[in-house]
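Kindly inspect this chain:
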Amino acid sequence: MLTEKLSDYFKLMRLHKPIGIFLLLWPTLWALWLAAGGVPPLKVLLVFVVGTVLMRSAGCAINDYADRDFDPHVARTKDRPVASGRVKPEEAVRLFVAVSLIAFGLLTTLRNEATILLAIPGALLAGSYPFMKRWIVIPQAYLGIAFSWGIPMTYAALRTAIPWGEVLLLMAANLCWVIAYDTQYAMADRDDDLRVGVKSSAIFFGRFDRLNIAILHGVSLLLLAELGRLTNCGMPFFVSLVVAAGIAVYQQWLIRNRDPQQCFRAFLNNNYFGAAIFLGLLLDTVSRS
């Protein structure tokens, strides 16, 4: 039935689990506010918010295609549409292409050549990441680059020239954060990943997983603090970094015993980490007005 197929596509794009949308959206919103020096133009904001939802959805579709031989053997993923056979692998590829093209079409409405050109490697990163789990010992680093690619795109959309020093600083901060939270995610699946042969940072870090997560969170916050100094952010932004640090400490408490459910809970908790930093930027904007 059509309704059942649409439901399977909805689940294939993980629209029923929006955590991935938020984790991709927060750094995009950070970049929009920093690039605009406050509230960005409404059209640019809407294009990037909707584009984030679309590209995360496309990424989930191609991820399930790439993992079609692994997911049936992992307890948490065995019921996904492709793994369970409800959606054919080629359908997942077609959905990835279709949604990516819609996102690209939306981006062209900004009529900004630099942003459009930057979208091409962004799409390649999104489409190739799921296959990196076979080759790279820390595929989370590749994911971090993919999840950071919206940052230069936002600056290109709002500035006549991209301040690469500022952009690379924000990308590096986000890269560290992504590796940190996706390591928590991988810790929840570590036993299954070892059994099926998938590489992850949780496996690579081994018994030093918690230490590396703490270091990555710390470096991310230090880089954000330096960015705040360079861009003359006010006290609300720096207070938000302190709040985010407290959230990171709480996550360390959650994963102290490496219980898979608690590791996944810590991963979900990163939504508050990203939201706290955005709230700091928002309050900083209000304080200056």
About this structure: The CA atoms of residues 166 and 230 lie 8 Å apart. The mean pLDDT is 95.
